[in-house]
């Protein structure tokens, strides 16, 4: 009678594979989350550039900056189509501080009348 040897993985081989997968995940996951934060920061900066441009046009028509935190009003008054997905946008009444802000948690980006965008220390660059 001929017996066939069963082919299977040993417990040691499975443990090694699980440990290697854990190490790879420990390296990849923080990098992924940092990339997501940076892309969301770019979204906010892009929207603030649009708010700044819209505020300039609004100022040329009314001689005042829009001061509103309602995204629907900002879109209609400034002619934009922003969505509040990750950020809460507001249009501010201008100098000397800023004419637009984007807030998410502890991170706040602001845009000045000349288009300079600054963020708090907790914001990714």
List the defining traits of the structure above.
alpha+beta, four-stranded antiparallel sheet, 2 helices, 18% strand
Blueprint (SSEs and pairs):
Layout: H1 11-62, H2 71-78, E1 88-94, E2 98-104, E3 107-111, E4 117-119
Antiparallel strand pairs: 1-2, 2-3, 3-4
Commentary on this structure:
This protein is α+β, with helices and mostly antiparallel strands. It has one domain (11-119). It contains 2 helices and 4 strands. β1 and β2 form a beta hairpin.
Short description:
With 125 residues, this protein is of the alpha+beta class. The protein is built from two helices and four strands; from the N terminus they run ααββββ.
- Give the low-confidence spans: none
Instruction: Output the structural class.
Output: alpha+beta
Radius of gyration: 25 Å
Number of helices: 2
As for the number of domains, it is 1
The averaged pLDDT comes out at 91
